[in-house]
Amino acid sequence: MSNVYKKVELVGSSREGVDDAIKRAVAKASESLRNIDWFEVKEIRGWVDGGEVQHFQVTLQVGFRLED
Questions:
Q1: Whose CA, among 4, 11, 14, 57, lies 20 to 30 Å from 27?
Q2: How many distinct structural domains can be found in the chain?
Q3: pLDDT above 90: percentage of residues in the chain
Q4: Per-residue b or e along 23-51, where b marks 16 or more CB atoms closer than 10 Å to that residue's CB
Q5: The 3-state secondary structure of the chain, one letter per residue
Q6: Average confidence (pLDDT) over 28-42
Q7: Through-space distance between the first and last CA atoms of the chain, rounded to whole angstroms
Q8: At residue 21, does pLDDT exceed 70?
């Protein structure tokens, strides 16, 4: 049997880094979405203050299997 997926777009943020921003977004989405199987990073951006990176934002899509 083939699976059917739905994609939703999320924006994760973190002061720690891109990896942490992704993990926070997926963890939060997992609280209300079941069957998340994958993610795809669409955009990375950040906030700079005084010449130093202060904050990261990552736009990603997560895919989850629709139930039968």
A1: 4
A2: 1
A3: 93
A4: bbbbeebeeeeeeeeebeeeeeebeeeee
A5: CCCCEEEEEEEEEECCCHHHHHHHHHHHHHCCCCCEEEEEEEEEEEEEECCEEEEEEEEEEEEEECCC
A6: 96
A7: 11
A8: yes
Cβ 12 vs Cβ 24: under 8 Å: yes
CATH number at residue 58: 3.30.1660.10
Structure tokens at 61: 């899509």
How far is Cα 13 from Cα 52, in angstroms, rounded to an integer?
16
φ, ψ of residue 33 to 5 degrees: the values are -115, 135
Q: What is the dihedral of CA 4, 34, 59, 7, to 10 degrees?
A: 20
Question: Domain residues for 13?
Answer: 5-65
